[in-house]
Amino acid sequence: IVLTGGDDHLWKTWGFPDGNILLTGRGHTDWLSGCCFRPSGTQLVTSSGDTTVRIWDLSRRGCILILRGHSRGVHGCSWHSCGDFVASASMDCTSKIWDVNSERCRYTLRGHKESVNSIEFLPFSSTALTSSADKTLSLWDVRT
């Protein structure tokens, strides 16, 4: 299965290698910039120019959680390897760590001078890596 998102505000899962569309997700009101499967494969996270991060349940075929808190479009998102946390990178110069279980922002990472373009958790750690339009990379201990 391949997961894509685009300017049409939709995410799609595609069967591979046939290329048939298996699922389509509707709900964002602007471009999709990121989409990522939960490590268990049962859910996915998407990020969008509409300033939201959304959690989708594949078995329910719908959005189960909308995470709001960024003031500008969200460029990227990723799951932590434990599956309980999602990270987002935004044009508002911040990144956020979201606790999926409590449905709230756990930490806001501030320090970049321009848009944060991507965020990834290092596998099996509490460290996140961000890249920014300010031409810097930052490593964050998301516990502090």
Automatic annotation (TrEMBL):
Annotated InterPro entries: WD-F-box_domain-protein, WD40/YVTN_repeat-like_dom_sf, WD40_PAC1, WD40_repeat_CS, WD40_repeat_dom_sf, WD40_rpt
Taxonomy, superkingdom: Eukaryota
WD repeats, residue ranges: 25-59, 67-108, 109-144
Family matches, as Gene3D superfamilies: YVTN repeat-like/Quinoprotein amine dehydrogenase
Keywords for this protein: Repeat, WD repeat
Single GO BP term: axoneme assembly
Any Gene Ontology CC annotation: axonemal central apparatus
This protein's name: SPG16 protein
